[in-house]
Structure formats: C-alpha cells, structure tokens
Amino acid sequence: MPTQKTATPKAPARLNASLPRRQASQAQAPIFNARIEGIDYDILEELTGYAVRRAQLSIYADFTASLGAFDITPQRFSSLVIISNNPGISQTRLAEVMGIARSGVVAIIDNFEQAGLLERQDAGDRRAYNLHLTKDGQKQLEKYKQVVKEHDDRVSQHLTLKERQQLRALLGKLCREPDSGPVVDS
Predict the structure, then answer these.
(1) What domains can be seen in the chain, in order of their start residue?
(2) Which long-range contacts (CB under 8 A, 24 or more apart) does 89-98 make?
(3) Environment class of 106 (CB within 10 Å of its CB; exposed 0-12, middle 13-18, buried 19+)
(4) CA gap 182, 152 in Å, rounded
(5) What is the tens place of the pLDDT at every residue in 131-163?
(6) In this predicted model, what pLDDT tens digit does every residue of 72-91 receive, in sequence order?
(7) DSSP string, 51-70
(8) CA neighbor of 14 nearest in space, from 73, 68, 81
C-alpha cells in the first residue's frame, strides 16, 4: 500500500520574502547591455543563436531582479507550473519535460518540499514519487505568476501583441529537430 510523505511546513525566509525586498533586489540587479556601442561584433551580428542568447541574458537579468528575492529561478518557476498543471507527475517525467538531469529535478523538489510548497507521494516504487503542490504551494505559485506576467510585459513592452505571438511562433520553429526538414509556409 503506497504511503505518503508529507512536506514540512517551515519555509526558508527567501521563499517568503516581501515585496519591498523584491523591489530592493531589482534596484541592485546588474544591468545587462546586449549591444555596446563601439564594439565590432563581426559575424556574431548575423548569427541567430547569438541574438537569441543575448536576448535570453537580458530577459534572465530582469527575471532574476523580479523574482530573485523569492528564490525563484526560471527553472523553479517552470517546475511549479508543470507540477501544478500535471498533479502526480513523476520526478523522472518532470526532468524530461524540463530538459534537465533527474538529479537537478531532485534538488529543485527538495527545496520546494522543505519550503512546504510541494509534497512527494509514494508511487509504489521506492525510487519514484508523484509530485503535488500543497495549498501553500498553489497560493505562492499564483503570486509568482503575477510577478512573472509583469516581468514578461516589461521585457516585451516594445513589441505589439501580434509581434509577441509571432516571436513565440518563430522561437518554436527553432526548437524543431534539426533533421526534421525545412518548414514550408502555406
């Protein structure tokens, strides 16, 4: 008969940080300049991967400034969203979805469990657990989602709604398997 591991109710201070601390974090965040005048970037300016990486660094800097005081990284936020919307997902499946090593997921899950945001439920195999957010985890995730929406609006403020949709679609095309052939537009 499967048993249930319960989460400890005590949360690390960083996961319970207040809004003023988060705003202070924003003020201290280093500014990432994706393009510095007077620098010759040569072929780099023609490379899609380089442009995506520079944009990612800029977006990550804002994300960290927005949620760093909560000790929430993009991986941690994504994990919470996936677990919330897929209750009972296994750690192995979460690692697959996230594209990270299983050991990396275990570290993330350990952090959330210690903070009382998540609980592992025995899946009938000593090595496997089903993951579920606690009520506090769901509540915290809703707060994080609001901050992430504000962050996303801020970093994409120079794009129209249509351009945002187009950018997501184009980036999705970059995630295709390299050997799947060219995309044919209709």
Answers:
(1) 13-155 (1.10.10.10)
(2) 89/130, 89/131, 90/123, 90/128, 90/129, 90/130, 90/131, 91/120, 91/128, 91/129, 91/131, 92/128, 94/131
(3) middle
(4) 30
(5) 999 999 999 999 999 999 999 999 999 999 999
(6) 999 999 999 999 999 999 99
(7) HHHHHHHHHHHHHHHHHGGG
(8) 68
